[in-house]
Structures are given as structure tokens and as C-alpha cells.
Amino acid sequence: PIDDAFLKKSLRKFDSNLAFRIPKRRTENAMAMFQKQRRRSDVSCFVGGNAAFQFPPMKGGKTVAFSPIKSLTRAAENMPDPERTETNESLRHAIENLVSIIDEPVSPPSDTNQSSIVHIIGTGLTPTLLNLPLSTLHILSQADVVLYDSLGLSYQDICQIVPKHCDVISVGKRGDKKSWKQTDIDGLLLQVATESVSPSSSDANNKQKTPKMKSIVRLKGGDPFLFGRTRTEIEALRSNNIPYSYTPGISSCIAGPHLGGIPLTDTSLDCQSFGVWTGTDALGRSRGLTDDASDGKKWHGLDVDVLVFLMIGRLDKLEALCQSIAHGDGLGDDETKKWNKDTPCAVIQNAGGRTEGAGDSSLPIQRVWRSTLEHIVPFIKEEDETRTSVSPAVFVVGATAALDLLSQDSQP
Fold it and tell me: What integer pLDDT is reported at residue 80 of this predicted model?
């Protein structure tokens, strides 16, 4: 097993990405030791129990190329995890029994030469296990590896349902924070899909001659196909002839406004359509903060009634976007424009977020700010002038943004 002496020696020796697994009781010491050691090096390190956490190279250090995760020991994998109790085992058996009652089990083709299958699953918006369909719960209960995003199912929830041997790895990306690069996620997905599966204790006791097909679950918040960068992961799987499945989820562009009480369509307000944009493109450029004419949108020429923006949590980005929508194009005066400074808008922060959990898995309670394009950012800053971001957030522009259908108070 990895001890403090081994960890200290490793951090001094390696100058590239380092990956290993350690017992949970040593995680805190490992992190403290790593932070001290990184002052003298540019090591990028993964630590944790059955989870993996990324520490980017220190500021000013050289860029460290992606290095596949390779366990220096397998001893920690077989250690009991206090979060995975007999209750979790009972939950998995209950799911298995329910699935067997509802539907006939589907076995993989007998003539397949593949040893792994990847399940790409959308989990909707900040869900709990109770929010997920039975098919997703069933896949998770049999998973060997889970790669999950920041704004989906929490680590604690995942550990409640996956088997004891399952590796649970966070590969989430968060705006304006150090995050995984998509190419690194593609590489990690390929690595875990091509590694041979470690037999469980029950498999060893039964001395099965036919190896179990390895089940890798790629959990994504919202819907994987909507601003989810799923195409590169699928192309990586296709190029290596690795089979995969897809399960859709409800995107935050719909669930976010609706959880804030804002319908995206409303016949009485003559809102019959809506459009969805990302506030930050694949290159990190922000909507409204660039002078590139090709990046701008002719907002007043759009034949839609409601605008929805994702990944627009930074307040300087939001303010620039509001100005672009309210004053863009220079078409006519405010009274004749489709959008102007008095157009209703709303920001939904942590839509569906909850306070239970601990550490990075928890999210603050949902917040909703309603105002106009001219006043929304000053209104957000009223309670805290130093606030610079409301990420993760969904931004809605249009007449329906003034509504709150989830409030028990009557509205005109």
C-alpha cells in the first residue's frame, strides 16, 4: 500500500503527470504534501480513494502533456470503502430484481470480440438517484468505471449504486477554472475502455472462463449531445471499434428556466419559439466580448421570441452580452427594436441545486434574479459588489423571463 514515505519520494522524482490510488484516510495528508512539494516542481498529480482528482501544473510551470492514468499499486482498490455499505449492495440487488421483473435481460452478442462497452448517459440537471430512469440505475449498478462531469450526479450518489470495485473518476469542466481538456478526456476514455477488466471476487470464486464484458459509464450533466462535446468521444470510440450506447437527458437550457419558474413559450405573451446559444464557444471566446463581426449575432433579425444562453456565469461576460442584445445592430430606436434595455431577463444560478452532500459534490441552493437587460447585472451586484460570477448559470431574455410559475403568489 502507498504510504507517506512513498508519496513524498514519488513527488520529488517525477516531473510529469503522476497517478496513483491511496486509501481515503491518507488523502488529506497526500494533498497537503503535494501542495508543499509542487512549490519546487511542476508535477501534475491525481490522488484519491477510488476517485481521481486533477491538480494542474503550478503557475509559471511548463505545460505537462497528458499522461494516461496507471495505478502504481492495485492494493488500495481492494480495500473496503466506508461509503459502500451493505445498504448499497441491497440497492443494487433491488434494481436487478426490478429490471428482471419488468424486462428480459439482454446479453451481449456471443460472437463479439470486444471486451468493453461505453454507455454515454445524460443525467439531466443536478439530479439525485431518484431523478434517474431505471435503465440508467441498472447500468450504474453494473459499472466497472464511471467518468462523470461536475454538474451531474454527485460522487456520493454514484458511490451509493456502483459496485465496490468500480473506479469513479471526475473529469468535469467548469468555466473560468482549471479543468480537464477534452482531448485528455477522450484519451482517458479510450484507456479505460481498452484495459482488461479486473475480475470481482465472485468471478474469482466461480472461476469463470469467459471474461466479463467491461462496462464503462460516461455520465454527462444535461443532455450529452447539446453543448456536451460528445462527438469527439464517440469518434475516438469509433476509431478503435469500441461499442457504445447513448441515453438522452433533459438539457439545462430547458430544465434550468423551467426550474426557475420561467416557461420558454407562452401563448398569452405571444412567445411561440426560443433559441439556445452558448455564452462561451469551444475556443473560450465569450459572446459579446469580442470585436469579431463573425462572432456576433444580428439579435434583432432573429425570428425567435425568447433567447436562452448557457455558460454565461461571469458577470463581465453577462453585462457585455446584455449590451450587445439591447443596443446591437443599431436598428431603429428602443421602441421599435425586438429587444431593448427594458426587455425582461432572468439569471438562474445552480438550477435545481441542493445543499446536501459535502465538499465539492454539494451545490448552493438555486438562485433566480429577474430584471431587465439594463439592470440585471447591477441588481445581482447589489448584495455583493465584489461578486464576479454566478456560474453555473442559465440566462433567459424575453417576455416570459418576468414570470414565476413556481411561486405560490398570484401574478398579474
Answer: 45
In 155-242, alpha helices (H): 155-161, 182-194, 201-206, 230-239
For 32, the 3-state DSSP assignment is helix
pLDDT in tens, 275-297: 999 887 655 555 555 544 444 45
Average pLDDT over residues 335-350: 88
Cβ atoms within 10 Å of 379's Cβ, excluding its own: 14
Beta bridge partners of 275: 307
Using a cut of 0.85, tell me whether the model's pTM lies above it.
no
Q: What percent of the chain has pLDDT over 70?
A: 60
Q: How far apart are CA 289 and CA 318, in angstroms?
A: 9
Phi, psi of 24 (to 5 degrees): -60, -35
Cα distance between residue 243 and residue 115, in whole Å: 9
Sign of CA dihedral 254, 257, 261, 266: negative
Give whole-number Cα distances, 226 to 25, 219, 221, 240, 350, in Å.
39, 14, 10, 24, 18
**Is the bond preceding 392 in cis, omega lying within 30 degrees of 0?**
yes
Alpha-carbon distance 331 to 340, whole Å? 11
Phi first, then psi, for residue 36 (nearest 5°) are: -70, -45
Arithmetic mean of pLDDT, 54-68? 38
Give the tens place of pLDDT for each residue, 149-182: 877 788 888 999 999 899 999 987 665 556 788 8
Distances (CA, A) of 135 to 123, 204, 233: 12, 27, 22
Task: Sort 210 into a burial class: Cβ within 10 Å, 0-12 / 13-18 / 19+.
Answer: exposed
d(C-alpha 323, C-alpha 341), whole Å: 8
Rounded CA gap, 363 and 353, in Å? 5
Nearest to residue 3, comparing CAs of 36, 43, 33?
33
Residue-wise pLDDT tens digits, 281-337: 655 555 555 544 444 457 777 889 999 999 888 999 999 999 989 986 544 455 557
* ω into 364 cis (within 30 of 0): no
Round to the nearest angstrom and report the end-to-end CA distance of the chain.
Answer: 66
Short-list 129, 127, 151, CA closest to 140? 129
Task: Measure the CA–CA gap between 199 and 365, rounded to whole angstroms.
Answer: 41
Strands 145-148 and 344-349: unpaired
d(CA 205, CA 80) in angstroms, rounded, equals: 18
